[in-house]
Specification:
Largest sheet: 8 strands, mixed
Low-confidence stretches: 177-181
Structural class: alpha+beta
Number of helices: 17
Helix content: 10-25%
Length: 791
């Protein structure tokens, strides 16, 4: 591309294709298959002569065992790979003895291969010293069946021997055809298997309780869904699913797994319930595409979903319409600040799906949208697939979660404390890939709040991300990546610290536990921080391992003035460890529940409430026993469960920051109100972001402040802050404080107007038509000297 003197672009040569980056959309060559084997898990794969395997230890230090069988109980691992399979069955035994769902699955796979567990000799790949991203390449010299196992067992908190994933790539010697590569695998044995070709629609019937899985086969393809009660059709009533009624009853733009999950007809009768959703971006505002839309765009006669619906529904005597209302799955629409509905390419990826449960007998219709004149289907309409499943199948409610844009999809999980907590509430919400309680029956957030402030409360914090950082260079890595001075941390101590990018913006905040000279544990809010630490270690060539242990360590927090009395009754510690009563703020101890042989735990004097409190970490298999002990000991001390709503209240009062509210990657620690975590004068070692933070501290632009609001009217995250007409900041978090009897908030404002007692106004509606007066005050609003957690 060149420009003449008039700044007009002149094209020389053929046009340059548009350059588009699509993180997370994996494109594998023809004949290459990819599998990820979770730590402490296994998979079964057929193998053929000439196939090539590339196996990668994703996080390092993770053994991988391969067993090959002819399917009749004969082990042929050595014959297939020309490698000696001389490892004992230790790895398989670890998985089978873990008591997890993976152990049951592995046992079934061995039965399928007709292999006795005690005779399962394997080819061992990798080991405790293998670096992250280590690879082994193997070629199959014969055919057979493979069991690829990633052993781990139960993590020892001191050894930090967590189990981490392994990636398997298979390049087939005889690739399947392109058509076969788009084959969609069902979640269970299907009742119906329906393929909807691009630009068409099909009807199908389901019984009450049965499940409907609607799959985007190739990705970025919309599908309109409509349903009718069979009972009402039989009585001559043609009442389709009504998106407006559904939105109004749910208070959401579309139904989503959880409590607000159902879709209704015009008589407000539920038709379907959303059970699982791997995309999370759909439309319930617009009709299915229709002839008028294409005519107005200059495409008369274009195929459209409405006409396809009319044709498919013709056999049910349902009158045709010029525009069908529908739930438009995978259709990416939104409403902008000018109240305009706009759309873009779908977020759905190949294989993304929505799983519905029929509330009553239904007649359903689904389309594969034919739009090819805009980005609605990524400019290229493709197929949709529908499975239906028996009401005898069991599918848990789940929302898709990805650790990074490139990561494989994971479904919402239950923490190990879910069973005892779910006995006290059904009000759960998805948080960071797990279901956590919002509030509890009978009490509610106000009672939970006062329990934490005046007595004691227990909360589930298992979704916090844990990473084991070990090796001779562990301290050097953390010293370079954290703003705090990690070299000053002694064994048994904990320090709160942010991680920053080069420009000084915050990536995450969390705590570092020092277990020994070369052994640390990082506990943060996101997977990205652990992945980034591993990337920095590889870039620097350091001898250090950063391995995820989130699924090996679940934790509850016991917070409040009575928390020490509760835990003193149940925490036993060996003589070399501090007793619970000796534990100071930001210290931890290793012990057990009640006695020498009780479940092992790590207990730290930390929390997120602004009160005296502790966190208890345990292996998931011991979680119910740990919770039962805490709950029993708490009976005489006023212990109550605490949900996310009450947790948000206590953390705002205490001035504790939250990702996405008080900080993001554009916010430095000084702007986030945690400047004390950046010891520029006392930490002499360089760390990532240091130069940027020196500059940003010297020339601050924004500051986190407290607000005292002169009204009981609620304000919220993102509400604008003004002096006169000028906008000078925004509210980050707010609450009505029961103990202070006041409406308070945290806010980020321009440093020009950040002085205490500055009078400001919070903008509501459009920011100008309605204002709420407030003034800047010191924060934290509650216990600013932190006397209570130090007590």
């Amino acid at each position: 591309m060149k420009f003449n003197d008039a700044k007009t672009a002149i094209q020389s040569g053929p046009p340059t294709p548009s350059r588009i980056l699509r993180p997370g959309i994996r494109t594998l060559p023809l004949g290459v298959e990819r599998y990820v084997v979770a730590g402490n898990g296994s998979i079964f794969l057929p193998i053929y002569a000439g196939d090539q395997l590339t196996i990668t230890d994703m996080e390092g230090g993770q053994p991988c065992d391969i067993i090959a069988s002819d399917g009749n109980g004969k082990l042929i691992t050595g014959d297939i790979f020309n490698e000696a399979a001389d490892i004992t069955s230790e790895g398989i035994a670890k998985i089978l003895g873990s008591g997890t769902p993976s152990s049951q699955r592995t046992r079934k796979l061995l039965e399928r291969l007709k292999i006795k567990p005690e005779s399962a000799r394997a080819l061992r790949l990798f080991g405790s010293s293998s670096p992250a991203f280590s690879k082994v390449e193997l070629t199959a010299h014969a055919g057979g069946n493979l069991l690829i196992a990633v052993p781990g067992g139960i993590m020892d908190f001191n050894a930090q021997d967590t189990a981490t994933p392994v990636e398997v790539l298979i390049e087939r010697n005889s690739p399947a055809s392109g058509k076969a590569l788009n084959k969609v695998l069902p979640l269970a044995d299907p009742v119906s298997d329906i393929h909807i070709d691009a630009r068409t629609a099909q009807c199908y019937s389901v019984k009450a309780g049965e499940y409907i899985q609607i799959v985007d086969v190739a990705g970025r393809q919309c599908t309109d869904f409509q349903a009718f009660s069979q009972r009402k059709l039989d009585s001559g009533k043609h009442l389709p699913l009504d998106a407006t009624i559904t939105r109004s009853l749910l208070g959401l733009t579309t139904p989503t797994p959880g409590l607000p999950a159902k879709a209704f007809d015009m008589e407000m009768d539920a038709l379907v319930e959303v059970i699982q959703d791997t995309c999370g971006r759909h439309d319930a505002f617009l009709t299915a595409c229709n002839a008028r839309y294409y005519e107005d765009m200059g495409y008369p006669g274009h195929l459209n979903c409405t006409d396809n619906f009319n044709q498919a529904l013709n056999g049910y005597d349902i009158p045709p319409r010029k525009g069908w209302e529908a739930l438009n799955y995978f259709y990416n629409t939104a409403i902008d600040a000018q109240n305009q509905i706009y759309f873009d390419e779908p977020w759905s990826r190949p294989g993304d799906y929505v799983l519905l449960r029929a509330v009553t007998d239904l007649v359903c219709v689904s389309s594969a949208c034919p739009c090819d004149i805009d980005a609605a289907n990524g400019w290229d309409p493709t197929d949709i697939h529908v499975f239906t499943y028996s009401d005898k199948e069991l599918f848990s409610k789940a929302i898709a979660f990805r650790k990074t844009p490139d990561a494989d999809v994971e479904m919402t999980k239950e923490t190990a404390f879910h069973k005892p907590l779910s006995a006290m509430t059904r009000n759960f919400t998805e948080y960071n890939g797990y279901w956590l309680p919002n509030r509890f029956n009978n009490d509610g957030p106000i009672a939970e709040y006062f329990a934490c402030r005046e007595r004691a409360a227990v909360m589930d914090l298992s979704p916090l991300r844990k990473f084991e950082v070990t090796g001779p260079d562990a301290e050097a890595l953390l010293q370079y990546c954290m703003t705090r001075d990690i070299r000053k941390l002694s064994s048994g101590q904990v320090v709160y610290t942010p991680l920053c990018y080069e420009h000084g913006g915050m990536m995450d905040d969390g705590t570092v536990y020092r277990l020994a000279q070369d052994n640390f544990r990082w506990i943060g809010g996101s997977d990205i921080s652990g992945i980034w630490l591993r990337e920095q270690a590889e870039k620097l060539g350091l001898e250090v391992w950063v391995r995820s242990s989130t699924d090996q360590m679940h934790n509850i927090a016991v917070q409040g003035p009575n928390s020490r009395y509760i835990l003193k009754e149940i925490i036993w510690t060996p003589p070399a460890q501090p007793e619970l009563s000796e534990l100071e703020w930001f210290r931890f101890t290793v012990g057990r529940i009640r006695e020498f042989s009780g479940p092992p735990v790590v207990v730290s004097r930390t929390g997120y409430s602004g009160e005296l409190g502790y966190e208890i970490f345990c292996h998931p298999k011991d979680a119910e026993a740990v919770f039962a002990a805490v709950w029993e000991a708490g009976h005489g001390h006023g212990l109550k469960p605490l949900g996310l709503e009450a947790l948000d209240m206590v953390r705002i009062e205490a001035g504790l920051i939250f990702a996405g509210y008080e900080f993001c990657d554009q916010t430095d620690p000084f702007e986030a109100g945690i400047g004390f975590t950046v010891p520029l004068k006392s930490k002499n070692d360089d760390f990532i972001g240091r130069e940027a933070l020196i500059e940003r501290k010297a020339h601050p632009r924004r500051k986190l402040v407290g607000l005292a609001i002169e009204s009981q009217e609620a304000v919220g995250n993102g509400d604008t802050i003004h002096i006169g007409r000028a906008r000078i900041g925004e509210v980050t978090s707010s609450m009505r404080s029961p103990i202070l009897n006041a409406n308070i908030a945290l806010a980020r404002v321009d440093t020009t107007h950040a002085a205490l007692d500055t009078e400001i106004e919070i903008g509501k509606l459009d920011g100008q038509q309605k204002r709420i007066p407030a003034r800047i005050v010191r924060f934290p609003h509650y216990d600013p000297e932190k006397k209570r957690p130090r007590s």
